[in-house]
């Protein structure tokens, strides 16, 4: 006799169904709101209506019926639909983040290309250029801000209800999941929890009035990126890649995802763009040459900066003092300041 399926079993099964046109499943996207048993071994599935297009809803319903009814043998499947979210891939439903003039995301297709280093130094450079700046560390699984800003054991102060104040360091307001964990705590979360954390950091942090909020996104094209694109109006996305082909290929996926959800792309930062020998001054293209520049040309984007490999970048980040603050006249710092100026000049006027 087959084992009776629990609601948890059904939830797990529904995670095998991707949202039409996306590589992310309907559970991770928060489309499945509730799974409840009904009479005679059936289940009622409550869905958030993430699209106004009837064909999308019909396709999701058809896939669920096929999976639950035909493959898993559930005798009866009922649907309830509630419209809560703006449509995936549409401009409607987004709002300006209160008190923030411009919101800029820093993204990459894969990890290990120095995205968080770029985000941290961009935030500090903007602050040193006279702007009021916040930095939201949305890399839930690999938060870097606590180490890169040497915040130690400091924690955000509660502000009543669900609200809290960001930590301020080096003239930048900071929030990160890392502030709520100890150093050894892994984040083992499914998609809806990641999406909820990003929403909470955006809406429940008392950012005050600021010119820029820089968002350090996790690598890839998943839940955090989609949540940000759905919830707030982005003024621009900076794509970070290293020169080698494998990084560029993943960065291209990120570019095309942000285009699909109608987010403006500011351009490309080619990080780890060669190594300059400190003794002879000769360059060495350790990770290949010009991948970021070729991608920018191919996609009709601007190459915003090329940042070579310098040991001082790593050393300053490990000490918790971004290089734009520790060594403002360093060649890498000059590249980050040029990046910051280009970001400022690309912002829409009020």
Record keyword descriptors for this entry.
350 residues; alpha/beta; Rossmann fold; 2 domains; nine-stranded mixed sheet; three-stranded mixed sheet; 12 strands
Please characterize this protein's 3D structure.
By secondary structure, the chain is α/β, with parallel strands linked by helices. It is 34% helix and 21% strand. The protein has two domains: 76 residues, GMP Synthetase, Chain A, domain 3 (2-Layer Sandwich); 247 residues, 3-Layer(aba) Sandwich (Rossmann fold). Strands 4, 5, 6, 7, 8, 9, 10, 11 and 12 form a nine-stranded mixed beta sheet that branches. It has a three-stranded mixed beta sheet with strand order 1-2-3, covered by helices on one side. Helix 3 packs across helix 11 and helix 5 packs parallel to helix 6. It is globular, with a radius of gyration of 22 Å. About 3% of the residues have low confidence.
Give the SSE map.
Elements: H1 7-14, E1 32-37, E2 43-48, H2 54-71, E3 77-82, E4 100-108, H3 115-128, E5 133-137, H4 145-148, E6 167-169, E7 172-176, H5 191-204, E8 210-216, H6 223-231, E9 236-241, H7 245-260, E10 265-276, E11 283-284, H8 291-298, E12 303-309, H9 311-319, H10 323-326, H11 331-346
Parallel strand pairs: 2-3, 4-8, 4-9, 5-7, 5-8, 9-10, 10-12
Antiparallel strand pairs: 1-2, 6-7, 10-11
Summarize it.
Helices cover 34% and strands 21% of the residues.
Overall mean confidence score, pLDDT: 81
Q: CATH superfamily name of the largest domain?
A: P-loop containing nucleotide triphosphate hydrolases
Low-confidence stretches: 84-93
In N-to-C order, the SSE pattern is: HEEHEEHEHEEHEHEHEEHEHHH
Q: Calculate the terminal CA-CA distance, rounded to whole Å.
A: 66 Å
CATH architecture of the largest domain: 3-Layer(aba) Sandwich
**How does the overall form come out from the CA principal axes?**
globular
Beta fraction: 15-25%
Rg, alpha carbons: 22 Å
Q: Decide which structural class fits the backbone.
A: alpha/beta
What name does the CATH topology of the largest domain carry?
Rossmann fold
Q: What is the subunit arrangement here? A: single chain
Number of helices: 11
CATH class of the largest domain: Alpha Beta
Q: Major sheet: size, sense and barrel closure?
A: 9 strands, mixed
- The level of helicity is 25-40%
Number of domains: 2
